[in-house]
What we know:
The protein is mostly helical. About 70% of the residues lie in helices and about 5% in strands.
Amino acid sequence: xxxxxxxxxSIARPWLKTLTGLLLYVLVYYAIFREFRHVILLIAxxxxxxxxxxxxxxxxxxxxxxxxxxxxxxxxxxxKSEGISPAQKSIMILAGPIPGIIxxxxxxxxxxxxxxxxxxxxxxxxxxxxxxxxxxxxxxxGGQLLQTLYFENxxxxxxxxxxxxxxxxxxxxxxxxxxLLLVIVLIPILRLxxxxxxxxxxxxxxxxGINLNRAYEDLSHDQLESIRKKMLKFYEEEDEESLTEADNxxxxxxxxxxxxxxxxxxTLRTKFFFTLIWCLGLIFPLIxxxxxxxxxx
Length: 297
Ligand SMILES: [Zn+2]
């Protein structure tokens, strides 16, 4: 009975969080725009985008998939994956913006044939929001895609990319006079911190004679045990008895991260194909928006 209750709770809670977030979202946007039509349209475009990520994550067997709406910051879908190839991850990332851009392009052509204000608004929102998400900046989808395709195995390049991303967000918020965007800078900065401590752990492990160029799946029980011992040494955790199940899970996850980096790299075909889709996804919104700007003048 208890077990049933717990599992029912853990299923209900994420949805409750999603719905509360969504409600707060509606309220915040309503406070800003004061017009219900804008708000509904905006939220519809955002939900449509997030549903793309959500459905593909579910299809690829991601665990703990959750859709979260955080007022002022944005919406995102989180989930844990195991054994996802770079191509699958790229599909998951692009499943957010690309369907929205396709809808935007279709609306654009309908608008050209039969202009009306609602169609105009829908076209601009679908193209602008999804096109914006394709910009090559972490944590946006475009940045995540480039990271997956090109930088996953190179820490130095990753660090530079994160620094550039942080800088671009600062410049963007200054250029758009939207200082709320600065909150996004926190994400690259937090990632930099994670990368830094991971790099320190990698150096330590290499010094201790652990070969990191192996896949997690290939490690034997004894090897895993020895890695675990070294990790406890690194974190100066002497009292092994005091570790909780959560600590042990954290150690396992960290080990997976350490030995994952060298397992999969995107093939040339994958790189070419998804980079092409990314470029097209950026070009179409740009053409349509330039058209609107030129018509207005
Ligand atoms: Zn997205």
